[in-house]
Model the fold of this input.
Amino acid sequence: MIASLRGTLAAKDAGECVVEAAGVGYRVQVSAHTAAKLPAVGEPVFLHTHQIVREDALMLFGFAELEEQRVFELLITVSGIGPKVAIAVLSGLRPHALARSIRGEDLASLVAIPGVGRKTAERMVVDLRDKIGLLALTAGGETAAPPRPGPLKSEGAQDAVAALVRLGYSATQAQDAVRSVADAEAGLSPEDLVRRALARLAKATPAGVR
Done:
């Protein structure tokens, strides 16, 4: 089992890199966050790694931070989440933000990640909310952000958030806008929530900025 790699960065792309160590080039799949932390090609690099061996493939996944590797290893224990989906999840949310979403049962933030549907998000919450531990408070030496309001519980509100995210707004923007509309008037349909939230976002966002 290859537990880590230390060598020279030979190549890098959005979702993978090649690390040359002792004359061997290792192709490593990485999240967007780890890819952003990689040095320039030709520079020394170190990655924590998780190796997966299958009949038809040998795959190596790399992580700039140990916390990201630990969350990856938790994610692939969830039914329906393979290593590539786990990398996509970690590209969508940093470990501490993902942990807070899981422990807070914030399905809207989870389904906003490409490749994660409602059923997968629900399985993540059920399987991991008691395992994700202190990552909900802090990860990678980062100080936890001040507590945000609790997640939107109604399915209609969550659907409205997901619709806004598909339109290009961040999960935080979408949740705040839908929450403000839902708090002002109860019983609105998801379509009405989306329309009124869009009106609020248009007022709050300068033209051309999202």
